[in-house]
Specification:
The chain has helices spanning 61-69, 108-119, 123-136, 152-164, 182-199, 210-216, 244-248, 251-264, and strands spanning 19-29, 34-45, 50-54, 76-81, 84-85, 93-96, 170-174, 202-206, 219-223, 230-235. By secondary structure, the protein is an alpha/beta fold. The strands form two sheets. A six-stranded mixed beta sheet has the order 6-7-8-3-9-10, with helices on both faces.
Length: 271
């Protein structure tokens, strides 16, 4: 079915979408075979929206993020980012990967500021921004801690701060909490939701966890097995401010999670 492109409830339609994905197909060809990862994918993401994507393993979720970022070129179709066609790697976005990928010899704050060094940002402005993000994410007191001195969740917070340091209008997240234990992942979900509300960044998150997708998203995109197509897009009818325990036990959350799980069925691992 065609994806819904409506704005979240009670929001006005923006003049320009932040991300427009139009009839996207991506096929990888090698000497042995040709594999279509994505087929005829179309989706619009509004400014400041939080969209989550779930689907079976190998359905092209991560490939879709890489195409939006300009790291992979599609075979057909196009992506518009902030009104411009994506033809090359995009510098103005943030990207949070599955692994924190911190430099082991640099402390937390120094790892965050690596972004500023690579971009040639003003040192004073970058330092002030880093300190603000450190406070927002509960890393105060751990500024000089080396990665091996930090828990997995704290390492991901550092990576998230680094991705947000240059105040990107768009943050792409490829299962950044997938390797964390269940309790830490819950804490990171709460942290991420609060951070998104305070920064108004447009976020697209790929996850295998249905619970995570529903808790964080304003809309949940459900994809089919490979070749990945958009099967359904669900509006998330939950309060803007979400207490984790209350949200998870609410009838609206349980109904939506059950519907998504039923749609995915036994097509693959989906959390």
């Amino acid at each position: 079915m065609q994806p819904q492109t409506a704005m979240p409830r009670n929001s006005a339609q923006p003049a320009t979408a932040t991300i427009e994905i139009r009839n996207l197909t991506c096929t990888f060809t090698s000497k042995r075979q040709s594999t279509t990862a994505l087929q005829d994918v179309s989706l619009t993401v509004a400014p400041g929206e939080f969209v989550t994507i779930v689907g079976p393993s190998g359905c092209g979720k991560s490939t879709l993020l890489k195409i939006i970022a300009g790291l992979v070129q599609p075979s057909e179709g196009e992506v518009m980012l902030l009104g411009n066609a994506v033809r090359e790697p995009q510098r103005d976005i943030g990207f949070a990967f599955q692994r924190a990928a911190l430099l082991e010899w640099r402390g937390a704050r120094a790892n965050i500021l690596l972004q500023a060094e690579m971009r040639g940002m003003d040192k004073d402005a970058a330092a002030a921004r880093a300190d603000h993000l450190i406070e927002l994410t509960g890393l105060s007191g751990f500024e000089d801690a080396l990665p091996h001195e930090l828990s997995g969740g704290m390492q991901q917070r550092v990576a998230l701060c680094r991705a947000l340091l240059h105040e990107p209008p768009v943050l792409l997240m490829d299962e950044p909490f997938g390797a964390l234990d269940a309790l830490t992942r819950e804490h990171m979900n709460v942290e991420m939701h609060r951070l998104w509300r305070e920064t108004s960044t447009t976020v697209v998150l790929v996850t295998h966890s249905i619970a995570e997708a529903v808790y964080l998203g304003q809309r949940v995109v459900v994809m089919t097995p490979r070749p990945g197509r958009i099967h359904e897009v669900y509006d998330v009818d939950l309060p803007a401010e979400r207490d984790y325990g209350t949200t998870m036990s609410s009838p609206a959350f349980e109904t939506l999670a059950r519907n998504i799980r039923g749609l995915l069925g036994a097509s693959g691992h989906h959390g």
